[in-house]
């Protein structure tokens, strides 16, 4: 049996990545949509063969509880709305995938986990790179200490933002700037390289060069993470720069992904040469893995607890940047 997924929020990521990926999945399929924009409905219904009864808006969304076609609700809304829709989905007894960052506060993350536990549904975060071969190799190289213990990690994910009106620059909806959106990939990359949670962080806000864009959220931030085993990560992210790299160095060798965090075209090498690994449909693998967890009643490798841990690290990075002090986690 293929499990039915309903996408909540039909923005860029749902349209450009998730819906196409759901045409390549083996254990789940695109069964329904939830949208606040009626003009999108006809095209989605036709393109993906979605029946009227599986189309919801934000007001009647809770009626999804009685829809047998929908097993999983996938929340793909602006960050500050993740908590409300994850909790409503859990109350409708649907399993949930929630996009990153899980929420804009640790408290919201905890409420989401509690709601899913209480309603006996599974919760996972849209961490697609856990299912990507180059990143899986990095986890192996670092965590299995193939080149000895990890000493140093460098990560940067940045791009240039050109739309001043988007929700990503709105503190209320985004929770913060590039750290919430892109820096989270650096936090993730460093934590799965060493297989540990950072113990302490320091951080610095960068210069604001476009004050009309960045009057609410940071334009650039750099930060450092200390891991319990002694590894140190140096990271940066910006909405006004370029970078897409994850580097690791252990006592007897090093590795680098560049580009590291893209949907495709990831390239990797180690101090011994190219990784020669395939690029795959990351989102198809991610959604199939979660569907399998449900079908076989197994635990997801990217649970809500991981999303909460990462939001806790992000909040510590902001605190460190604001106060100029080292923040223990
Ligand atoms: P987007 O702006 O393209 O789409 C957001 C959607 O939410 C739109 O359809 C919009 O109409 C809807 N929406 C509902 N209520 C809204 C409100 N109050 N304000 C603004 N929009 C509202 O954004 P996106 O790029 O699709 O990102 C959505 C989520 O997916 C974010 O949490 C983002 O971090 C995440 N994302 C994850 C990845 C990934 O690789 N895992 C990639 C892109 C986005």
TrEMBL record:
Record-linked PROSITE patterns: TAT
Coiled coil: none
Superkingdom in the source lineage: Bacteria
UniProt keyword annotation of Oxidoreductase present: yes
Domain Gfo/Idh/MocA-like oxidoreductase C-terminal: from-to ranges: 281-329
Pfam families for the chain: GFO_IDH_MocA (PF01408), GFO_IDH_MocA_C (PF02894), GFO_IDH_MocA_C3 (PF22725)
Keywords associated with the record: Oxidoreductase
Annotated GFO/IDH/MocA-like oxidoreductase domain residues: 135-244
Gene Ontology MF annotations: nucleotide binding; oxidoreductase activity
Domain Gfo/Idh/MocA-like oxidoreductase N-terminal: 4-127
InterPro entries assigned to the protein according to its UniProt record, in alphabetical order: Gfo/Idh/MocA-like_OxRdtase_C, Gfo/Idh/MocA-like_OxRdtase_N, Gfo/Idh/MocA_domain, GFO_IDH_MocA-like_dom, Glc-Fru_OxRdtase_bac, NAD(P)-bd_dom_sf, TAT_signal
Family: Belongs to the Gfo/Idh/MocA family.
Protein name: Predicted dehydrogenase
Source organism of the structure: Pontibacter akesuensis
């Amino acid at each position: 049996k293929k499990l039915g997924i309903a996408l909540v929020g039909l923005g860029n990521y749902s349209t450009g990545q998730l819906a196409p990926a759901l045409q390549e999945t083996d254990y789940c399929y695109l069964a329904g949509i939830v949208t606040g924009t009626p003009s999108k409905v006809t095209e989605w219904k036709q393109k993906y063969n979605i029946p009227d009864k599986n189309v919801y808006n934000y007001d009647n969304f809770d009626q999804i509880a009685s829809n047998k076609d929908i097993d999983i609700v996938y929340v793909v809304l602006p960050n500050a709305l993740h908590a409300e829709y994850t909790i409503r989905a859990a109350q409708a007894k649907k399993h949930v995938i929630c996009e990153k960052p899980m929420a804009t506060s640790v408290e919201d993350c905890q409420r989401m986990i509690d709601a899913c536990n209480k309603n006996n549904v599974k919760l996972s975060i849209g961490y697609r790179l856990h299912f990507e071969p180059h990143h899986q190799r990095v986890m192996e190289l670092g965590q299995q200490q193939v080149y000895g213990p990890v000493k140093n990690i460098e990560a940067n994910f940045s791009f240039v933002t050109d739309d001043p009106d988007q929700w990503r620059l709105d503190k209320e909806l985004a929770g913060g700037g590039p750290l919430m959106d892109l820096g989270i990939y650096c936090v993730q990359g460093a934590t799965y390289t060493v297989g540990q949670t950072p113990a302490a962080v320091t951080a610095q806000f960068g210069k604001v060069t476009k004050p009309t864009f960045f009057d609410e959220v940071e334009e650039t931030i750099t930060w450092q993470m200390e891991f319990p085993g002694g590894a140190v990560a140096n990271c940066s992210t910006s909405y006004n720069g370029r970078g897409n790299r994850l580097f690791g160095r252990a006592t007897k060798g090093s590795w680098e992904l560049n580009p590291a965090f893209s949907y495709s075209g990831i390239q990797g090498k180690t101090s011994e040469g190219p990784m020669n690994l395939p690029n795959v449909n990351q989102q198809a693998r991610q959604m199939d893995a979660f569907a399998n967890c449900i079908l076989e009643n197994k635990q997801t490798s990217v649970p809500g607890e991981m999303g909460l841990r990462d939001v806790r690290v992000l909040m510590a990075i902001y605190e460190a940047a604001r106060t100029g002090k080292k923040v223990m986690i």
